Amino acid sequence: MELRQLSYFVAVCEELSFSRAATRCFISQSAISHQIARLEHDLGVQLFERSTRSVVPTDATTRLLPLAKQMLSLESAIRAAVRASGPRIRLAANMSFATRSLSAIAGAREAHPGAEIEFVIKPFRQRIAAVADGDCDLALIRGSVDQPGLSVEKLWVEDLVVATSTAHPLAGRDDVTLATLGDYPLLLPPEQEQVLLHNVVRKAYADLPTRPSFGPPIPPDHTATMELINRPDAWTILYADSHTEGIATLRLAGRPLRVPVSAVLRSEARRSPILETLLAALHSS
């Protein structure tokens, strides 16, 4: 039994889907299925009842899950406890924050030449857990989080863009309105996977007499841009730094769609000069 297998096991338990768990863990679906099968073999029990439509945890899974989470939490605590005592900061984010983060890290290192600042790639839930466990000093997220022991510091506001296929009837317009877009299907991931984007859409349409016409949810193993290519009548919302061949971005008339980007930190942690410099650089970036 390996810690990575327990990590994959927890992901499948929380997602109730091997494909979504694989996406979350940045591995292939076949690889995560293989590791879960190895874990089942090592433990001598079946952990999930699998079918083409569902993944159902067994009684053994219910007993194992809290222990697996405890083991993973201990791993993070061990890494934090033995971390080098020199000046070191660990920033958890995903690749969409890479450009601004690396620029801020470069500025912080210039101000503190002896500092070691790591940029750690983690999915959303693992970013939050890493800060809570002390394995990372801060995490970048879109939106906010309400969790005891954590504080949230707003860094900047990020624009969202309306995107369509270049074959969409509206693709050639200078700007579009939400009311006009309501005549076409909106493609988004399921709400449980992208609560923030769904909340942005609800807020944008709150004062309008029309509502968006939702198309089928984007599957976990598909991308929004590829769905637009396959559905040239549809539209979606992307982060502003997303650029793909065959995709048109449209200027939205009226109030733009925006989301806050925040830093998540431990509430009681002492902020070192390096951390304060990094936060200031992220603010100004």
From TrEMBL:
Keywords: Activator, DNA-binding, Transcription, Transcription regulation
Residue stretches making up the HTH lysR-type domain: 1-58
Entries under SUPFAM superfamilies matching the protein: Periplasmic binding protein-like II, Winged helix' DNA-binding domain
GO terms for MF: DNA binding; DNA-binding transcription factor activity
InterPro entries associated with the record: LysR_HTH_N, LysR_subst-bd, WH-like_DNA-bd_sf, WH_DNA-bd_sf
Pfam families the record matches: HTH_1, LysR_substrate
Domain of life: Bacteria
Gene Ontology cellular component list: protein-DNA complex
Keyword Coiled coil: no
Family: Belongs to the LysR transcriptional regulatory family.
Name assigned to this protein: DNA-binding transcriptional LysR family regulator
